[in-house]
Amino acid sequence: MCLLCEQYGDGYERWYFNPANYARRLYKIRKEEAEAAGAEANPQAAGGMAVLGREFLEAKERGDIEAMEKMKKEAEAGALATHFGQVITLDDALKIIDIMYPITLITCACRRSMQGLPDEGNFTCIGMGPGMYKWERWPDTYRGGVQFLTPDEAKEVVTKMNKRGLVQCIYTFGTPYIGGLCNCDYPDCGGIRLRVDYDVKVLWKGHYVAQVDPELCNGCASCIHRCQFKALNFVPTRNKAHIEATECFGCGLCVTECDQDAITLVERSSLPALVDEW
Amino acid sequence: MLATITVDDEKCNDPLSCCKCLLVCPSHALGLGTRVGPQKFKEIEPKHFILRGVRFDKCTGCMECVEVCPKNAIQVSFNGGMGK
Which of B30, B40, B82 sits opposite A141 (nearest CB)? Predict the structure, then answer.
């Protein structure tokens, strides 16, 4: 069972289908320093390393598993309370676009820090909820400002991003309030890289797992470049795509690319070994 | 061995508009950050942006960033010292 669905689902099939999770308060009492200063105040925030710095990499190098686990646990707990993500499918993304309001297109902070992308080429994140009015009010604060979108425009944008090969992820801003529908890729997305390379769960797996039907797979390999999680490879001796179920995040990017309909998404909850693997 | 990546901020004074090292790094090991947090009514000035080594474990020591830097501001070493 997904912990988020349990805590914040309120009877909805998924926690991110619950409209209450898109209705963050417009006003709140500002917290002291750490939050008021913003994560970007820390230069190591670049590339999602705000939560885990060089000490973590040094512990990893000297094989200090205890120190690594301690740092990971702290980072995960902090992320879960304030800012963490979950991978979702394109279908689920299109559904939540009908729930959220207002909807905007904003710039990606990860790609600014990892590629130095200028604002005009960097509008890949969907921002949502009342927080967007702050972005509108203070465009200088939030580099690039916002472009407000209708639900239909937002669906078109997200579908295009999926086509380009970007993974749809929702992110909370003060859990459980969902404020971003990001379109992410490895290695520049801080969430994906922290998760895939260091197994730090700031980005959770989604509710599905992809499976290849070997009868239908014709070995065309057009899906292979779609996986951002190192879960998909091509097996030459069988001339088939292979998906490592334990590594699959259930984003469905391989599914939307397959002309043969050889890849399907199954519910994570239907696989006993993976039911608690988020 | 973990790389030590140091950047001379005096020389690298506008990384936001340069970004050559970020784009040349085959391991995406470098990152752009800021000295200050978001500010009301004003954009963060270019001089507050700083370049840093981030994914030290991914750096192979190929020195592409050192070579591409027009300001000669980046140093990469593998002597076990601490990166800044």
Answer: B40
